[in-house]
């Protein structure tokens, strides 16, 4: 059943409607992970003979792709479980660069060894697998998951999961056990969880319309501070460069930036421009900028200190679901899902996409499979090298490796 995120948060004993359909919708379709027939891949390549040469001094005129993305691994639900919902709602690369974690409707945190997902030298030859074969560790959870975040400073050992029951749980990955639970949101769905750069503070955003901060070092401590919005809080993120700033996106159509040192004083920036719910807000390193994402079908770049919109990004489809949005700051790229069942990459300099990949495998009978791309995450590796992981509402995980193209097209 499809409905919008509720803008009200004073009924604390029942779940309000989800964001225009569950952020992770159920799809009851048969699935076979081989063979796959991809719809298409598109990019305006700057080194292509058919590409329009850039006009000197007019870099803003035409977007061009200066990156090469190649499929490295595709992991699908096993055929035996294809009828069960396995939608992916969160993807997180381990900061220690060993693991990739996913979570979603299936009530599982799946871990994949990164060296099995990425090519080990040379050109990638796509690997096809299913979750049972590719997953190196699985933690079963009591509720559906909406968000995951690795705890900084834990050496890739502690991961936080936000769930539909309103609980944030920290899991010890090595022991596969829960080590702490926080339920300050009184049973209202928690959409997002994050940690400060040093891991000392945690934050969560919920259907109850609050951003809550806590001291992650205090096992018995309750909530340290609370900020309120006029609708469900869909996204929270700390400044990854260690500043005191916390960004939040709300169903009230606004993005906010708070000072964690004075959270209850209200936002230091209120960013209005989206026509519908703001589902993600991500910081852009190197300045006071953020990118927001909304169910009006746009991402928007802001100078939050001045409260000024710098650019809007359109091309993907988003009117009803959490589709995933991530920023690779050092490369100046935005990764995005889409309800058109495609994964998009935008360059911060241009409002149109620079790379689009059809995510829709076809069934054996040749018919298109319905669904949408529901989660994305960047692996921010060395300069000019990285990876983009994208998950679908059908449970398919795809990992693409990306490399910067030099002037010779190499």
UniProtKB/TrEMBL annotation:
GO terms for biological process: response to UV-B. PROSITE patterns: WD_REPEATS_2 (PS50082), WD_REPEATS_REGION (PS50294). The keyword Calcium does not apply. SUPFAM superfamilies: WD40 repeat-like. It holds the Pfam family WD40. Transmembrane segments: none annotated. It comes from the Eukaryota. Keywords: WD repeat. Gene3D superfamilies: YVTN repeat-like/Quinoprotein amine dehydrogenase. WD repeats lie at residues 190-215, 271-312. The keyword Chaperone does not apply. This is Uncharacterized protein.
């Amino acid at each position: 059943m499809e409905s919008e995120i509720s803008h009200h948060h004073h009924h604390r004993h029942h779940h309000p409607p989800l964001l225009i359909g569950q952020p992770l919708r159920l799809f009851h379709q048969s699935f076979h992970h081989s063979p796959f027939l991809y719809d298409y891949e598109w990019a305006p390549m700057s080194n292509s003979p058919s590409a329009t040469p850039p006009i000197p001094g007019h870099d803003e005129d035409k977007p061009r792709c200066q990156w090469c993305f190649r499929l490295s691994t595709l992991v699908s639900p096993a055929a035996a479980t294809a009828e069960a919902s396995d939608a992916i709602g969160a993807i997180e690369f381990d900061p220690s660069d060993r693991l990739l974690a996913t979570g979603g409707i299936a009530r599982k945190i799946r871990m994949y060894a990164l060296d099995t997902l990425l090519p080990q030298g040379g050109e990638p030859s796509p690997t096809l697998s299913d979750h049972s074969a590719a997953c190196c560790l699985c933690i079963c959870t009591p509720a559906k998951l909406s968000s995951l975040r690795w705890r900084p400073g834990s050496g890739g050992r502690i991961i936080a999961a936000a769930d539909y029951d309103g609980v944030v749980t920290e899991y010890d990955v090595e022991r596969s056990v829960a080590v702490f639970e926080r339920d300050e949101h009184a049973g209202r769905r928690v959409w997002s969880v994050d940690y400060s750069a040093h891991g000392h503070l945690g934050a969560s955003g919920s259907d109850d319309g609050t951003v809550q901060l806590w001291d992650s070092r205090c096992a018995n401590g309750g909530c340290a501070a609370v900020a309120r919005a006029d609708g469900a809080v869909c996204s929270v993120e700390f400044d990854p460069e260690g500043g005191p700033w916390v960004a939040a996106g709300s169903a009230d159509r606004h993005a906010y930036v708070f000072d964690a040192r004075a959270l209850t004083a209200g936002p230091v920036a209120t960013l209005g421009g989206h026509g519908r719910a703001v589902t993600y807000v991500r910081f852009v390193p190197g300045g006071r900028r953020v990118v927001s994402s909304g169910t009006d079908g746009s991402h928007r770049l802001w100078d939050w200190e001045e409260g000024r919109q710098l650019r809007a990004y359109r091309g993907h489809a988003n009117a009803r679901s959490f589709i995933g949005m991530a920023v690779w700051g050092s490369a100046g790229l935005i990764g995005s899902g889409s309800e058109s069942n495609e994964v998009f990459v935008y360059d911060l300099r241009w409002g149109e996409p620079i790379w689009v990949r059809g995510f829709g495998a076809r069934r054996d009978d040749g018919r298109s499979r319905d669904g949408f791309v529901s989660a994305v995450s960047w692996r921010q590796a060395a300069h000019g090298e990285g990876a983009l992981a994208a998950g679908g509402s059908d449970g398919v995980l795809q990992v693409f490796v990306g490399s910067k193209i030099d002037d010779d097209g190499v």
